[in-house]
Write a structure and sequence with these properties.
- The chain is an all-beta fold.
- It has one domain: Immunoglobulin-like.
- About 0% of the residues lie in helices and about 40% in strands.
- It has one helix spanning about 55-60; strands spanning about 5-10, 30-35, 65-70, 75, 80-85, 95-100, 105-110, 115, 120-125, 125-130, 140-145, 150-155, 155-160, 165-170, 170-175, 185-195, 200, 205-210, 215-220, 225, 230-240, 255-259.
- It has a nine-stranded mixed beta sheet with strand order 2-3-6-9-12-1-22-18-19, with no helix packed on it.
- The termini are close together.
């Protein structure tokens, strides 16, 4: 079977915060950012020596295994951009919160996080907030473009013109339509790359998990033949019966995985 591009993405963009067990490799670094107590002249390598701004963080060249910790419940103004950032399966690049609560990136009329042509990037347990479509925002909150083997998890997003999270090219794209209390239509698109030097067949397995961790469905695609060093696009449409709809009082969240 061909090597499968894998993304775990949250559909409804809100879930209770959770502690991620992240392993650090020997040559990787931890960077801390604290908008209240930090200072951009510090080293950024401990909570006591945290940087203050996203601008300082953006100046740091990141490598596989590096982990970025944004102080929980702090508000950070600006955006983060990542181009051609390459983690590995064993040592992904991680962006997450530490301490109490989610860190909040307030990006105004722009995006909060933009990643393009990256590998093994994890964005976990943060909140992104735009100025709102009526106040000038014309972007997505978190956007991954042609990013492979990456993961977005435990995200809260609001105030963006298009989507809180958008993933395009080289990964998993999820959209939902015709949402009512009786049913919702889930549209899934997955790009799969054959990295071998000969033609391979690929089959995708889709698993949807409800907010309680129970499997809603687990279904497979038909085999597709993918020529060597080329991509193939899988498309599927699923109906969710009596979906648990999101609200501020009941922040329900589903998780979809394709592998």
């Amino acid at each position: 079977m061909s090597k499968i591009i894998y993304l775990s993405i949250l559909i409804l963009l809100l879930i209770a915060g959770c502690k991620e067990d992240i392993k650090q490799s020997a040559d990787s670094s931890l960077y801390y950012v604290d908008s209240q107590a930090g200072n951009d002249v510090y080293s950024g390598t401990s909570p006591e020596k945290a940087w203050k701004s996203l601008q300082r963080l953006s100046q740091q060249k990141l490598k596989a295994g590096d982990q970025i910790y944004l102080s929980g419940s702090n508000h950070f103004h600006g955006s983060l951009k990542f181009y051609n950032l390459e983690g590995t399966k064993e040592s992904p690049v991680v962006i997450t919160s530490y301490g109490e609560g989610r860190a909040v990136i307030e990006s105004g009329n722009s995006f909060a996080v933009l990643a393009q042509n990256c590998k093994y990037l994890k964005i976990i347990n943060i909140q992104v907030s735009g100025s709102g479509r009526l106040n000038g925002n014309t972007t997505n909150g978190i956007e991954l473009i042609n990013c492979r083997f990456s993961e977005i998890d435990s995200i809260k997003a609001n105030g963006y013109f298009y989507s809180g999270i958008r993933v395009t090219g080289g990964g998993l794209l999820v959209a939902y339509s015709n949402v009512t209390q009786r049913s919702a239509v889930l549209n899934v698109q997955v790009d799969v790359e054959n990295e071998y030097d000969k033609t391979k067949n690929a089959t995708l397995q889709y698993t949807l998990v409800d907010p309680d961790g129970e499997t809603v469905f687990s279904k497979s695609d038909a085999d597709q033949t993918i020529p060597a060093q080329e991509f193939s696009r899988f498309k599927q449409q699923f109906t969710i019966v009596e979906p648990r709809l999101w609200s501020t009082g009941r922040p329900e969240l589903y998780k979809l995985k394709a592998f």
